[in-house]
Amino acid sequence: MAVGFSRENLPSCWQEFNHINRYWDKNTGLPTAKILPGEFYVTMHNEAITTVLGSCISACIRDPGSGLGGMNHFMLPVQGDNTDFEGLSSAARYGNFAMEQMINDILRNGGRREKLEIKIFGGGKVMRGMMDVGKRNIAFAKEYIEVEKLNLVAEDVGGMYPRKVVYFPKTGKVLIKKLYSKHNSTIEDRDENYFSRISKQEVAGDVELFD
């Protein structure tokens, strides 16, 4: 196990991910990227990717043959008076963007679309006094995977509690810890603030899936 790792001597990442917080995790013995709502990270190294999910969804996607993989962290906004999720509606464009950006990065760097395996996590009902945003996020993720004919191999979604997720793209292994404590409202506050912010902004342009 390496000791005294810093951001400067971690394995190099692609330039577009320089803003992602990366550190050496002494528990896993691996470089680890921590992603926040609205972020994603893709790697070809033996790294871990971690996040904490409340109402949001993370899709963990990899090509087992090339070893390329990544994780995103997203939530659907509400656009106008549309508070129901049915099919790939206009509100789902944000989810499309989150999924396709990451998939495109994997494909551009040597991954094969037909080999991709996907695991989805999150979508808990943790936001106070609001619609079940987590349920909408789960519905979107599953319909997206079905429409795009991608391979969903595992899921842990729904429920009443946040989750900490650690993903290892090289092997596909996932560690999940349910956060049962109700004494800390940090995740609920974060999700509500993020939901409010993205519901007031437009997604810039459409993204086409790179083939």
TrEMBL record:
Molecular functions (GO terms): protein-glutamine glutaminase activity
Reaction(s) this enzyme catalyzes, per UniProt: L-glutaminyl-[protein] + H2O = L-glutamyl-[protein] + NH4(+)
Biological processes per GO annotation: chemotaxis
Enzyme Commission identifier(s): 3.5.1.44
Keyword annotations from UniProtKB, A to Z: Chemotaxis, Hydrolase, Receptor
InterPro entries, per the entry: CheD-like_sf (IPR038592), Chemorcpt_Glu_NH3ase_CheD (IPR005659), Cytotoxic_necrot_fac-like_cat (IPR011324)
This protein's record includes keyword Hydrolase: yes
Pfam family, one: CheD
Domain of life the protein comes from: Bacteria
SUPFAM superfamilies, sorted: CNF1/YfiH-like putative cysteine hydrolases (SSF64438)
Top enzyme class: hydrolase
Record family assignment: Belongs to the CheD family.
HAMAP family in alphabetical order: CheD
Primary role: Probably deamidates glutamine residues to glutamate on methyl-accepting chemotaxis receptors (MCPs), playing an important role in chemotaxis.
Protein name: Probable chemoreceptor glutamine deamidase CheD
Organism: Aliikangiella coralliicola
